[in-house]
Amino acid sequence: MNALNTVDPKAGNILILDHDVVPTVMALMQQAISLVKSKGKWRFVTMDQCLGTPCYR
User: Fold this and answer.
1) By C-alpha distance, which of 3, 49, 19 is closest to 36?
2) Which residues contact 40 (CB under 8 A, 6 or more apart)?
3) How far lies 6's CA from each of 29, 39, 49, 55, in Å?
4) Which of 36, 39, 46, 53 is the most buried (most CB within 10 A)?
């Protein structure tokens, strides 16, 4: 989570892909999402929005 303190939201992006459904990973991701939201500087977007192109479906 140190990346949140070193990356400026106006100058960079953080892309996290997680396809794991192991309970430990799911709990960690919930904590990570809460931490990101608490910073108030970042926003969550879809993969389409992140890449600026429609993703396959």
Assistant:
1) 3
2) none
3) 20, 13, 23, 29
4) 36
Q: Rounded CA gap, 44 and 34, in Å?
A: 12
DSSP string, the chain: -THHHHS-TTT-----------HHHHHHHHHHHHHHHHHSS-----HHHHHTSPPP-
Is residue 56 in a domain?
A: no
pLDDT tens track for 9-48: 677 666 677 677 778 888 888 888 888 888 777 788 888 8
